[in-house]
Fold this sequence. Notes:
Elements: E1 5-11, E2 17-21, E3 27-31, H1 34-45, E4 50-56, E5 62-69
Amino acid sequence: MVERVTYHVLPNGQGGWKVQQENSGEVLGNHRFRTEAILQGRDLAQTHEYSLLVVHDRDGRVEKQYNYGRFPQAASKTRTAPSAKKDAGNSSPVARGS
Length: 98
């Protein structure tokens, strides 16, 4: 199963913005402007099959979230419609041979 990769755009504590990967905590970029950090985060997120970009405000609160790709559904969770076919010999309510 494909796991979602999450990136955060956060204040870097020096008046700028950083792009950080969630699980590793690795800082992937530091930027003077938030727009530049968002663009880098978007580019990184779009390289994965299923990802999330979380943009924070100056106070560290979540402001926006952007999903990229689709979460693949497990085969056991997919539903199939019941068959619409009827037995060809018994499909007519009228008796034959009259």
